């Protein structure tokens, strides 16, 4: 896995286990490669713009009688990963149909619980227990400030946030990150699909008016954010959070495949800590969009 600002090695150095590691050419830094010709950036929300550690536990503690419903909601959500129902209504009809069966309740009861109780509770937990990562609030405030409007480079990327949960605007506000009109917000109610389905990423690119290969997706999960970006033909930067469950693939290593038919394309991925990403953004703005070149 390459990191922002990491040193590039030879084309194919040997490692102790005998596998080959592929690295970018020495002549081109990793940050230059991942940010080159980027005209749009899509941020994930949960885990990316804030550290969502222990979020499930806080949700349960906020209302203990709902512990089983919360657990089942998360199980059902995992079953819906990558599924595309083409419209929001079809997505929610299927989602609450399964939720109803799991909880032995009619789908309309689960829909009412989800939108009137569960999501408002999620917003309250965000407001009470969490804060945006350093620089997130400042970035969005700066975008709408006179200084930001005056000093924003002409080629500054279009920014968007894409989450698998609804009420993104309200959750942003609860987090203390102001919602800038210059930042586009997307959720399941926008597409009727769940990451890593590629269509929402293509729709965001179309809405931005730019090609998928000109978009960088920044998220903390390679299995949803990463594969969604990869399937849509976009670049992906994995935020290093220290939570090892997110690092399932090293995109620069050729893993042996027991079944050659199951060996798909490798995930092109870069990684950085939030501080490294913030430093690069500041460097980008100071240099008028030429950082890393």
The CATH architecture term of the largest domain is 3-Layer(aba) Sandwich
CATH class of the largest domain: Alpha Beta
Instruction: Round the Cα radius of gyration to an integer and report it.
Output: 20 Å
What is the typical, i.e. mean, pLDDT?
Answer: 80
Measure the end-to-end span. Answer: 21 Å
Instruction: Say which CATH homologous superfamily of the largest domain is assigned.
Output: HAD superfamily/HAD-like
Structural class: alpha/beta
How many independent structural domains? Answer: 2
Low-confidence stretches: 1-28, 245-264, 289-293
How many β-strand runs? Answer: 7
Q: In DSSP terms, counting alpha (H) and pi (I) runs of 4 or more, how many helices?
A: 12
Largest sheet: 7 strands, parallel
Structural shape: globular
The amount of beta strand, in percent, is 5-15%
CATH third-tier fold name of the largest domain: Rossmann fold
Strand order of the largest sheet: 1-7-6-5-2-3-4
